[in-house]
Amino acid sequence: MKLLPEMRTISCGKNHRGVRVKEEHFEDGVSGVSVKALSEEPLDPDFGIKVDIGLEGGIEGAMADFRLTEYWCAPCFVRDLREVPDETQGLIYRKKDGIYGVILPVVGDQYKCVLKGTETGLCARVFSWYAKLLSCEELIFLYAEGENPFRLLEKCFSRAVRLLGNRCRLRRERSYPELFEYLGWCSWDAMQIRVCQEGVLDKCREFQDKGIPVKWVILDDMWAHVKDFEGETYETFRQMVDLMHRSSLYSYEADPERFPHGLAGAIERIREFGMAVGIWHPTTGYWRGIAKDGPAWHRLKEYLIETEDGRYIHDYKPEKAYLFYRTIHDFLRSCGADFVKIDNQTMTRRFYRGLAPVGEAARGFHSGMEASAGEHFGSSVINCMGTGSEDMWNRSMSPVVRCSDDFLPENREWFIKHILQCTFNSLIQGQLYYCDYDMWWTDDEQAVKNSVLRAVSGGPVYVSDQLGRSKREILDPLILSDGRILRCDRPGMPSMDCLIHDPGISGRIFKVQNQTGDSGVIAVFDLDRDRGRVCGTVSPLDVEGLKEGQYAVYEHFSGQCRILDYRESMEVVLENGEDYRLYILAPVKDGFGVIGRTDKFISPAAVKAVAGRRILLKEEGPCAWVEEGKLRTRNETSMHPAATNA
């Protein structure tokens, strides 16, 4: 049976000779849809081919992960497929009979596909951003239906990677950098574009004095020499951003006034504190590109093109993109840099539109970027401002992607947007990458809530506190004494019953679920826009991947514990200002279950081994376990035979 039985196509090129749709059904239950078109005149670069998609039966609701801005995606919750926003890059729907469906658009050799609602239903929009193509023969999307949307996503992505060839790989095929297993700090929120050597060193001294085991720092925007900054002042954040966006890179050596000993000298001093160093740089050199006739331009000019608005950026062709990045990365590596954060990645439409088809341009420059980052930094890269699907489908090796807009302190409205971006983007981007939930502040009024979200993220944890304002007590529940993060096994994602409902208006709790070993983790949040009472249930069934059996469900902040069978649930209500809870779901076997270090958010990850009923901890600390239906705790773990430190 075809899951999408009604598909019609319209070519937007004039005098076309026909458009054919081909469906291929695979043994894993996934179907792929390809189109073949030929026209006597160029296909429209923004809407070359339209494929109308019909579903059997109505839907209860859907979540569309769409391009909210040029760089960032966000979820949109709809009750009718006609409401699906344009540039949707992944769609999950639930039909009225309870069956889930996934539609996954892809980016091929030349064309990109997105979904959008129309007056009559849903369509796939296929386009190239290039006005010289007379034909199209590409895979455009995959789809599947079934009872478990998480498995449908995994199957669709796995099949897509195989069909698209060697341009991309699944998350499980990428190596998570060892460096990102440890706590980090970024200069951006603390110092913004006036980051300087002495300020960073002062922050390193603060971490040392407070015993906060930060193991890496990022020198963010803008450590390099930007002459446009000279003599400029600003009073507001907006004025600063305006200055940034009209400024270009003069030299990729560090600013001589703010870094008097050069980049190499600054990195050497930071390393004295036992910290690795990452360097931020955008794809464009700086936001306005490379300054003509400056040292950077003279060194890089053979690899640059001039855009319509007069800026100089690197060519999209892979060989020139590679040489551009290699030149910069050679310098950064020679200065002692350990990794890079590469910003401004979703730029194909803005700068390469009309020069080459979207698939060719994106694959070209990402091939060059990936080759250089792999060669110089072992693919230890944070990819940023790059959630466009043309970027998502064209990174071959680098494992980490920022999945949300920039952090804003002390802003509950922002946090609601942020958590939805992070977790729903993790459903889509997280099939291919580990997801970075961005930096945050430990002295923010939402610091604990932010730290709980990072605990379940499964990705890097790094802060951006201003000088003198870091709070060790906020970070301690996330890490061991050496700064190693107690990290979950995969990206944090919404539970199944939260996939198609807007938690801002649903009156329901919002749950982010993950795993650590054979234990589950569920963070519960109140995201009601009016700060109203929210309710719902927590169950072992909420955690994708948990095995059937009995579980001890332990709430971190209250210390309360209940025993639930796999399909049992318990009621949860958040009200009167209670914004969050954190549940550990520990498997109980033969009457015994290990919750782990109760002073840590991901408590089971602090357990080194369990032998019979003896618990070996990675480090000494308070511990809890369940024995014969009762919660047992001990603060001095080395004094009890059930729990000892390693």
**Total of DSSP H or I helical runs spanning 4+ residues:** 13
Total beta strands: 37
Major sheet, described briefly?
A: 8 strands, parallel
Percent in strands: 25-35%
Described by the principal axes of the CA atoms, the overall outline is: globular
Radius of gyration: 25 Å
* Sheet with the most strands: spatial strand order: 22-21-20-19-16-13-12-23
What fraction, in percent, of the residue positions are helical? 10-25%
Low-confidence segments:
1-15, 637-641
What's the end-to-end separation, in Å? 56 Å
Mean pLDDT: 94
Main structural class: alpha+beta
What secondary-structure arrangement, pairings included, does this model have?
Elements: E1 6-11, E2 16-25, E3 31-39, E4 49-54, E5 59-67, E6 73-78, E7 88-95, E8 100-105, E9 112-117, E10 122-127, E11 135-146, H1 149-164, E12 184-186, H2 188-191, H3 197-210, E13 216-219, E14 224-225, H4 237-245, E15 251-254, H5 262-271, E16 276-282, H6 295-300, E17 304-306, E18 312-314, H7 318-334, E19 339-343, H8 348-352, H9 358-377, E20 381-383, H10 389-392, E21 400-402, H11 412-428, E22 434-436, H12 447-455, E23 462-463, H13 472-475, E24 493-494, E25 510-516, E26 519-525, E27 534-538, E28 550-555, E29 561-565, E30 570-574, E31 580-588, E32 592-597, E33 607-611, E34 614-617, E35 623-627, E36 630-634, E37 643-645
